[in-house]
Amino acid sequence: MRPGETDAIEIHQLRRVFERRVGWRAPRVTREALTGIDLRVRAGTTFGIVGRNGAGKTTTVKILSTLLLPTSGSVRVAGHDVVREAKRVRALLGVVLGGDRGFYQRLTGRENLRFFGSLVGVSGRRLHDRVAALTEQLDLTFLDERVEACSRGMKQRLHLARALLHEPPILILDEPSLGLDPVAAAQMRALVHSLVPRHTVLLTTHDLFEAERLCDEIAVMRRGAVAAAGTPEELAVQADLRHRVSAVVDGGSPAEVTDRVRSVLDVTSIEASDAGDGRVRLTLTHRGAGTGVQDTTAALVALGLRVEEIRVIPPDLEATFFALVGA
Ligand SMILES: Nc1ncnc2c1ncn2[C@@H]1O[C@H](COP(=O)(O)OP(=O)(O)OP(=O)(O)O)[C@@H](O)[C@H]1O
Ligand SMILES: [Mg+2]
Fold first, then answer.
1. 7 C-alpha vs ligand 2 centroid, how far in Å?
2. Does ligand 1 have an atom closer than 6 angstroms to the CB of 20?
């Protein structure tokens, strides 16, 4: 970060406890949804939060959006405190909680946008211009249909339009592609991608492919805590996952090749299978850090094997996710 630059979002030691009473006289049951999390989102980037059901993603999003108060800790949006400066924060944010709620179902999309625009101070000529611009940007061809007649994909785009009406610099999206078909989900991803870097985006998702595609940095949440945060590569390192090396070699059966490779290389895993024509496909993981292509090639050649092809397979986010949060 350059000196003097403020993070778009700064979360420090955020805790949230929910209390509920099952019956009138029953003792209060408390649940710590957030146990004291720290997160930073740099301006102009896309930040993803992933984690299993109940990990605390929506709770974090709601606190950021000023819809829920923190129990303790601090949350700042562009340097403004979400509790003390809630109004200022709301002006800086576009929030998409998604789903079927959040619109007047009997009104058209356009009527809804007019109404919600007026709530955030966008009216008259500006509202007209904004709706026209968003129609183009988000392909809102269905604005004159009642919301109740809109599909999930249409509603989701309408949610995004509503969030963008007042041109907020920061967007918060809770599961933007939930329930969308593969085409609509891809369109939603393309839309979100087109918003960066003019907007900073924080999104939650269960789609790890989506997180990997869209996000510069990702936080993996687990039981109300941040298990790890960073780029996908940094997460893989934190999860202690190594790159794998895949090679096709010539010079022995899979079992023989495995034994010989094990005798010269320190590997945590090795798989060997018949690749046809007397060749063997090897996939191995080195115990030490680094990708190990050169070391591996040298070792295989020294064993008298002919190396036909060799490449590095970086860990994917799914493997990282499983390593960090468990099955
Ligand atoms: N209003 C509430 N009252 C009581 N407990 C709540 C409330 N809202 C959330 N919780 C609890 O807080 C924890 C975190 O919930 P949250 O909705 O933030 O999870 P999430 O990561 O968004 O999950 P999901 O992937 O299912 O959307 C859960 O244990 C949940 O039951
Ligand atoms: Mg949620």
1. 24
2. yes
Q: Is 166 in the pocket of ligand 1 (CB under 6 A)?
A: no
CATH of residue 259's domain is 3.30.70.260
As for how many domains the chain has, the answer is 2
Domain-embedded: residue 237:
no
Nearest to 77 by CA among 11, 155, 147, 130: 11
User: Does ligand 1 have an atom closer than 6 angstroms to the CB of 54?
Assistant: yes
Q: Which domain holds residue 264?
A: 244-313
pTM of the model: 0.87
- Asked if 179 and 298 sit in the same domain, the reply is no
Q: Is residue 171 within 8 Å of 199, Cβ to Cβ? A: yes
User: Within this chain, do residues 69 and 129 fall inside the same structural domain, yes or no?
Assistant: yes
Does residue 322 fall inside a structural domain?
no
pLDDT at position 100, please?
A: 76
For residues 185 and 261, state if they share a domain.
no
For the chain, 327 residues long, the average pLDDT of each consecutive 10-residue run is: 75 96 83 97 97 97 97 97 97 89 94 95 95 95 96 94 96 94 93 94 96 96 97 89 90 92 89 93 82 83 93 89 86
Which residue's CA is minimally distant from atom 4 of ligand 1?
Answer: 18
Residue at 14: amino acid letter: L
Please spell the DSSP secondary structure of 177-191, one letter per residue: TTT--HHHHHHHHHH
> Distance, CA 143 to ligand 2 centroid (Å)?
28
